[in-house]
């Protein structure tokens, strides 16, 4: 088709990236002019925003994720319509025009590492609204090739940061935490995996105890004291001993995990619960890096995702990773809140240029593959 042939040969493509993560809190949008060649992604960020889910839509998503209500195709449709409406409203409000491509991750409602995955938010409504190609369903091809289907950000990190002349670790703190190790230029392999819980356990606990919202800034958690015994016991779970490639999700670190540990956790004051979970999250990240990214001299931990705003988690990360500098991805020119959405915009560009978007050593896939399916 002519439109895709034109995109394949274009040096720079204005692309919208849409991301709704395991935090299930809303939609992140990033708009950028993207060039991808020679294993380097060049981009000019046009705009980025975050739009919270309306409460009724969020409730339906949570019910689908946790199995309290059977998933229906109506939710797939409604979410696709909502994506299209919100992207249109954002572009109009910022007077952004001439987007040529959309990369939409969708909302994960099911992911079993290496077995199956499902992201919803029908891309047909985006394609119909904007009359341009939409790339979605990024994870399935990797799973079909024997991979875990996640994480996918390591390839994006390689494209964005591989020209840095020092070894770094990137950390995305969403509902789940995942890391990418990038060695110095041409000095080793990229390593990437999910370390375990990100913000999901903290968000769910605060919702249970407060009946409203989340402790975005970590102010309540800062008032508490972590129970070291509980943290150390939780870190003995099999997932933390499992060798990469590995990925996880709310099936392992969500409300089911809280139900299994609620008796011991609920014996603490609310602030202490949150401080303990903050310490657990941060220490699980640190120990994973210490165990699986050993024998590498790392100078910086580059953080993005909603968890960067949680002061208590950040306090523990700085403590555990010292003397390694802990810095936001903003310092490298990549928005902390828009990075994942930008990542799926870049993966969409990779798709139309037939560039593989996974790293087999990270996901365990048999080969590198072009990721995603196109809707026109």
List the helices and strands and how they pair.
Elements: H1 2-9, E1 13-20, E2 26-37, E3 40-52, H2 55-66, H3 73-93, E4 101-112, E5 116-120, H4 123-130, E6 134-136, H5 140-144, H6 153-161, E7 168-173, E8 176-182, E9 191-197, H7 200-210, H8 219-222, H9 228-234, H10 238-241, H11 255-265, H12 270-292, E10 300-304, H13 311-321, E11 325-328, H14 339-352, H15 360-363, E12 373-375
Parallel strand pairs: 1-4, 4-6, 7-10, 10-11
Antiparallel strand pairs: 1-2, 2-3, 4-5, 6-12, 7-8, 8-9
Helix pairs in contact: 3-4, 7-12, 9-12, 12-13
Pathway: Amino-sugar metabolism; 1,6-anhydro-N-acetylmuramate degradation; Cell wall biogenesis; peptidoglycan recycling
EC number: 2.7.1.170
GO molecular function: ATP binding; kinase activity; metallopeptidase activity; phosphotransferase activity, alcohol group as acceptor
Provide tags for this entry.
376 residues, alpha/beta, Nucleotidyltransferase, domain 5, 2 domains, seven-stranded mixed beta sheet, five-stranded mixed beta sheet, 15 helices, globular
């Amino acid at each position: 088709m002519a439109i895709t042939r034109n995109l394949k040969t274009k040096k720079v493509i204005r692309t919208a990236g849409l991301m709704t993560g395991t935090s299930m809190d809303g939609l992140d949008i990033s708009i950028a002019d993207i060039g991808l060649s020679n294993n380097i992604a060049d981009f000019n960020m046009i705009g980025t925003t975050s739009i919270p889910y309306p409460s009724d839509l969020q409730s339906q998503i949570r019910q689908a994720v946790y199995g309290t209500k059977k998933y229906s195709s109506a939710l797939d449709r409604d979410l696709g319509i909502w994506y299209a409406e919100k992207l249109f409203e954002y572009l109009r409000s910022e007077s952004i025009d001439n987007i040529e491509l959309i990369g939409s991750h969708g909302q994960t409602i099911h992911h079993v590492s290496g077995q199956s995955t499902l992201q919803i938010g029908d891309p047909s409504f985006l394609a119909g609204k904007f009359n341009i190609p939409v790339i979605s369903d990024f994870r399935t091809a990797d799973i079909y090739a024997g991979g875990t289907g996640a994480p996918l950000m390591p390839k994006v990190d390689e494209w964005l940061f591989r020209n840095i002349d020092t070894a770094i670790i990137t950390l995305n703190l969403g509902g789940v935490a995942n890391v990418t190790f990038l060695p110095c230029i041409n000095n080793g392999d990229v390593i990437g995996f999910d370390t375990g819980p990100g913000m999901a356990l903290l968000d769910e606990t605060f919702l249970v105890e407060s009946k409203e919202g989340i402790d975005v800034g970590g102010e309540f958690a800062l008032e508490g004291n972590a129970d070291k015994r509980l943290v150390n016991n939780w870190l003995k779970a099999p997932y933390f001993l499992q060798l990469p490639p590995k990925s996880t999700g709310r099936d392992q670190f969500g409300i089911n995990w809280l139900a299994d540990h609620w008796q011991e956790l609920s014996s603490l004051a609310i602030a202490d619960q949150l401080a303990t979970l903050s310490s657990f999250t941060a220490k699980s990240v640190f120990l994973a890096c210490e165990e699986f990214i050993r024998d590498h001299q790392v100078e910086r931990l580059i953080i993005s995702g909603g968890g960067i705003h949680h002061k208590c988690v950040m306090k523990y990360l700085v403590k555990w990773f010292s003397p390694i500098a802990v810095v936001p991805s903003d310092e490298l020119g990549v928005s902390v809140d828009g990075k994942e959405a930008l990542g799926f915009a870049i993966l969409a560009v990779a798709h139309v240029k037939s560039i593989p978007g996974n790293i087999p050593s990270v996901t365990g896939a048999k080969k590198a593959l072009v990721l995603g399916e196109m809707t026109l």
